[in-house]
Specification:
With 382 residues, this protein is of the alpha/beta class. It has 11 helices and 10 strands. It folds into 3 domains: 102 residues, no CATH class; 147 residues, Rossmann fold (3-Layer(aba) Sandwich), CATH 3.40.50; 78 residues, no CATH class. A 10-stranded mixed beta sheet has the order 5-4-1-2-3-8-7-6-9-10. It comes from Desulfosarcina alkanivorans.
Length: 382
Amino acid sequence: MKLSNLRMIQNDSLTRAAATVGFEDGDQPDKEIFIETEKAFASDMCPNPHAFAVGCIIPALYFGERRLALDEAICPRLKEGLETVMALMQHWTSGKFQPLTIDAPVSETARYEGENRHAGIFLSGGMDSLAALRLIMDNYAPAHPGRPKDALLVHGFDIGGVVERGAKYHVFERARTAMAPVAAAAGLTLVPVYTNIRHLCDNRDLWLNQFFGAVLAAAVHAFAPRINLAWLASSYDIPHLHPCGSHPLLDPEYGSTDLQIRHRDVGLSRMEKLKIVAGWEVAFQNFRVCLANVPDKLNCGRCEKCVRTMLELEALGLLDKTRAFEEDAVDPAWLDAFSITIRVRNPFYEELIEPLKARGRGDLAAKIEEKLKASPGDIAYR
């Protein structure tokens, strides 16, 4: 795989960092990938080779490319990190993904330095990122360099990431509207980011099991003139770690000398995070956990992630306290629409059984037990 023609493109409203991806060992056509933002942030963005190296490493492994080549120099720390990423991918895929050669010069100094750079956080609107932000606000003084000043909301991730589902910019704008008061309450600048890197390989299993953390890291590298530390919230806690596109062994390796990436809160369970968000009113009224991206609701209330979150809130006696869902109670029949044991979901549901019984929702507890028994071998990753 050859990355070339790194460049900036500007129009009346957007600024784009772009590169051409040429596949050398397969029949994939050349593609242009990009990371872009609004013109207001144009001076804080660049065609950073780190962004494109990070964004392309997983698709290059997937398609069996023998090298990842750039003419631009990359940080030796990042190069070492990508070598670790490849070793981890080789292990996770039982040898299917073979390490490739990174054919690029290494830089002799840090690419970006300066006093005006600061920390940022990825803010999807889900429980993980909202809990991470709340804890940072509680634990980092306003003047501390680790406290973020920017919140990055990424289009091309869950919204607009799947080609066949369309860009759904209206859904992204709705998510942006919901996150605006949260960012304001935290004193953050909400930075919209748009990317098509996921479209290099629109394979769901690759995305979930290996790829999505790399796309987030790629996006923030394009803002290296502005951001020197990026906080990325954990997806799973320590007892339930498994091969995943975002992982504490993976995400930090996408960093460089001039941009640190921190995977945080891996010691917290899902329920602990939810309690943190529930104690923050502006976040609790505006969270977005839904991946269905329906036209008329922030959260559809019927997909697996919505129903699971509603069950968690039901178990805590909090479901009727948020307007993020239209319903104030969960119907057991809603669980019949999906498996609850995909992607290591089992522990999330198992911990709800006793609290739901204690809340007088034995019907929900029974449904969970029934579904767990029906598909005990349906695990996340093989």
